[in-house]
Amino acid sequence: MIFLDSHILGFGKLRNFKLRFERGMNLVFAANEGGKSTLQRFLVGLLYGQLRSDLKVQRRLDPWVERYQPWYGQEYGGILRCRLAGGRDLEIRRSFGRDENRIEIRTSTGEDITRQYEQQRNGEVLFGRFHFGLPKELYESVGIIRENRVPEIHSRETIRDRIANLAHSGDEELSIRQSVAGLEEMLDSVGSERAPTKPYKQTMDLVLQLQSEQKALEERRAQFRQWLEERNRLAGEVRLLDRELSRTRISLFEARRRDMVSRIESLEDIDKEISALSEQIGSLGAREEFPVDYLDELNQLVGARNSLARRLEEIRIGKEAALSRLTRAESERRELAGYASLSESAESEKITEWFVSYLSLSLQKDGHKKTSDRLRSEAEDLEKRLNKLCPALGSLETDWQSFAREAVEDEQAASRNCSTLAEKAAQEKSKMAVAVRAAFNRRFIAVILLLATSVPFVLRHWAGFEGLPGWLEYAFGGLCLLLSVWMWLVAAKSAEEGHDAQRKIQDLELEQGRIREDGESKRKKLDEVIENSGYRGLDDFLAAAKRSEQDRRKLGEITARLEETDLQIRRHQKQSDETYSLLKESLEKVGLSCSPGNLKFQIDVLRTNLRRFRELDTNYSHCMQKADSLKTEETALDEEYGRKCDGIQSLLAQAGVDTPEEFRQECLKRRKSIELQEKKESRCREFNRLAEERTLQQWKKALQEMETQRGDHVPGKDPAAEETNIEADSDTPYLPYLPTISELEEKERLTASRLSDARQEHARSVERVNGAFRSYRLLSEIDEDLAIAEAKFRELDRNRAALDIALETIEKLSRQQQEVLAPQLNAAVEQRFIRLCEQRYEEVKIDPDFQVWVRESETGELRSADLLSRGTQDQLYFAIRFGILDLVSNENESCPCLLDEPFAAYDRSRLLEAFNVLASESIRRQLILFTCREDLLDIARQHNANIIRLNSEE
Amino acid sequence: MQEFRFIHTSDIHLDTSFSGSGFPSRLGDRKREAIRGTFRRIMDDARRQDVGLVLIAGDLFESERVTPDTVEFIRQQFEGLHPTRVFIAPGNHDPYMSGSPYREESWPDNVHIFNAEEFQPAEIPQIGVRVTGFGFERPHLEERLFQKLSVLPNDYFNIVLCHGSNIGRIPSGKSKHGPFTIEEIAGKNIQYCALGHYHQQQQLPNPVDDTPAWYSGIPEGRGWDETGPCGYLFGEFADGNLVVENRTCNQYTLNSLVVDCDSFSTREQILDAVLNRKEDLFDSDTILRVQLSGALDPRLDLSIPELDERLAGQALHIQWDDQTYAAWDFESLAQEKTLRGRFVQTMNERIDQASGEEKIRFERARLYGIQAISGHEVRLR
After folding, report:
1. How close is the nearest chain B Cα to the Cα of A717, in Å?
2. Residue A733's pLDDT band (cuts 50, 70, 90)
3. CATH number of the domain at A394-533, out of 3.30.300, 3.40.390, 1.10.10, 1.10.287?
4. A46 vs A127: CA distance, rounded Å
5. B375, A179: Cβ pair inside 8 Å?
6. How do residues A820-832 score in pLDDT, each as one tens digit?
7. Contact between B297 and A57 using a beta-carbon 8 Å cutoff
8. Which of A323, B66, B161, B336 has the most neighbouring CB atoms within 10 Å?
9. Complex confidence, ipTM
10. Could B327 and A182 be called an inter-chain contact, meaning their C-beta atoms sit closer than 8 Å?
11. d(CA B244, CA B55)
12. Is the Cβ–Cβ distance between B231 and B250 less than 8 Å?
């Protein structure tokens, strides 16, 4: 698109102003404050309108609308004619102002095509965006190039950043890096789970704390319900106990009344009893001074005397019986008097020992005899078996086992020696063969040499060869002859060596035969013996030899044992005889005869008689002792009996009675009197105890008072008491007896105690219920705070996530954009720049990080853009700006580019270079350069620019 | 029949929570105190007006939240009302069940609590009134108990007291408990039907007969659907006629205001929009909710703390509800051949594919991203 002409109706200081543009470069010249900016704003306003571009619904005016109100009250707006790339001319007419938003777009034929353009909800027609592909803000930052910023750039980082900004947003000032940093800063301000000082973590902690508080309160509320139940249970318990205590007190009153009635009755009865007892005591007539206390003593003395009399009688009877038994024992003992000496001495034990020894010896003797017989039988069997053997095995001279072993060893040794000799013989045979072959070969060579002696002569004579001198032929013949002789001698020596070897072989073979014969001599002898003995083989023969050897050894052993047994038999016989003579002597002493046949019987008789004698002797001694002791006891009892009789008489005399029976009668009277007296005193004490220091009359009076009080508690008079009694009837189990006062007092005490405890417990329970939530906040408060905290946390979490998403997306898109944009930008910039710098550089490289490099044509070196001269940097800057404009705008419709005093700080040389850039770019798109510098006019003219002088007064 | 007066109230919700309304606990405490004050005022009115009976149609408190202190407070109030009879029909928030103060605490003699899920009569022979009612024994009651209510004898003035839902017209967001229809009430010889549960005071239209059935409404508003003045019903039976009238009693009023921000470009415009409605909408005893809606100018810094500070003292509390959306032209931005355009385009695609929470996050990401890329300050919502 190019602008063709424009008519400003009224816009700031410009009024009714017409201007014409040309394709290519246009230069708008005006002094400072001459309306250059106004014109720029006018052109952009006509293209994009007056409404804010970031709002699509609201009709919000751009801030400039107020500022550029016409100074002179003309219509606020104007007309712009333009030509599209396709050659179509359009006319845009707009009116500006708060209440104005008129726009007309017409074709060259006058057709209104406004409605063909997209329109926003706020009424804005998107003319500029439709044709340029750029929204208003982007066109203002990309399509309008203001004062060149390159001189301000001081570092490579800044150049890169600005290029990046331009590439990303089309605006040098809008930095993606800063945007990302801003988002990161905001994310940081929100915080995370690991940042305890930031709102995110703080809110999260608050939520957790409130949830925990809420949970604690819920637990306490559950506990509270249990406490309520407990409190109500305790209240019920207190009520029940209260009623029970009332009932118990009434029962206690009744019991006390009953007790008082009963007591009065008892007191009256006791009083009567005391009077009756006094009368009985008077009627008995007992002697008060009678020595009643001696009754026991008298009874004891009488009892003792009677007892002693009975005992004396018994002892006397016993003494007679003992003397009789003593006489009988003495006569029996006398019959076996011969055994007295044996009983007192130790001979009886010896007799037993001798007898046992005698029996033992007899048994041993019999055992040895049996052993001797068995051994003899075994020896005879062995002798018979040995006698049956062959003569070779019958003699003890040869150990056939060793003999056989030696024969085998001799054979093996002979075999080994023969092998050694055979090896030697083989070696000798080999030597002999070598010597014979060498002798043959040498003899053959000697014959050949001998024949060679005649070769030269044969050649001369038979073949006519005369090439050799005569002396040489003789020398050759002589030499061959000598060699033949020498060879013959050597052959003879070899033959001699062969003969020596043959002789050695014969000697070795003879030696071999002799050794083999020696080794086989024992074997042959053994074979001969086996053959003569009739055994089938060596193994059978050797087995028989081994058995005969064993039999012989066993026979020797048996013979030795037989001799030893005979010796023992003889020794036992001698000992047995000695023992028998000792036993015989002892038996004869007590009149018993014996023989070996009845020795055991006689010994048994001796033992029986001896035992009988000892029993009789013991019995006799006992009878003797018994008789003596009875005599002694009789004497002592007799004396005691006399003393008791004296004591009884003394007591009777003292009491003034004659017999013990009289004494006892008197005592009975006296005791009855005392008993009645005690009973009387006891009843008096009982009366006093019951009366409790009151008189009977006083008790009766007290009962009357109690009866008066009882009137208030009698059932039926008090409704409450009646109710209590009804309940008591229903609650209290039936008892077969009335409870006692102490039981009731105990019950009252226990009930009162339980009631007190229950009241205390109830009070504590009430206090606990009342204070259950004292240290807690209301659940509603917690819920409210929690709801707010959760909402806040939800918002923070949402914001965190949103910031994360935004950050991640921007970074990712930025990387992608860099990778895509850098090559595109590179392509867009490179051609422009190379053309501008007149081939001084052959290549431009913009990497994905927007670093710019150029390659020198001459040296081929790659230089960073920062190292270029200021003029070259300007050229590069312009190339990049135009390149970016190409990239972001509609490629089919190049938009006019407005340059607002871009060369303010340029010197002439740089201006010339910059104009070269502009001239080059003006081929591609319409340029409108706004300046106040007159020196630019000439340069512009040199580039055939259309000069427009602004004069707002026109 | 004798002349008498009565008070009908319900849904007092002592110790309730305002978490659903977004109140901070500080404000919640004030509001809870206000509810107690309102209840006390109703009881004072009952004493002053010499009423014969007080009818409480459920939800006197919230069982799960009520404190021993509040229970004691209620007990004292009822005690102070003696000998005026108090009838309570427990509702879904204060059912007569294990652990409920109705069961666990001892109540003065003048208090009668309907403790079964069936209609039971309680008579006051002194003034010739029979109150028939039922109480919830659980938080949910779906049985239609009115169907089981037989025609009441005409020896006394019959009042029916209960907590329930008129299923002929259920307000939005209201749960259905103890359901009934006006047809089930009609023809039962009921002279007055005292209802609770719906928080808007209303007389049920009765096309069948002239049985008056009233929801007393909530005496102190709890939520944003209970705005404006609230009160209880005061009834007087004299000369054979029953007159029922509303008595306003609330301490703090809830009100809502919607402010469309489409045309605003500064905070002051928002403030002006709020203050312009001061006379008819709020005063220092009002809890005001300001809903900001519409497209918000990206250059407008909607600083809620700043707005709060500027309106301090104008109302008891102002709750801001920001429902605005940024007025960026994201469709146009998406067409730019710049990183900004590509970012918006990418985010637009993601937003189109997302839903629910994810969509919200993407929308915010787009907003924050565009603010950052455009060189604006990133303002978190």
Report:
1. 28
2. low
3. 1.10.287
4. 9
5. yes
6. 777 888 888 887 7
7. no
8. B161
9. 0.90
10. no
11. 13
12. yes
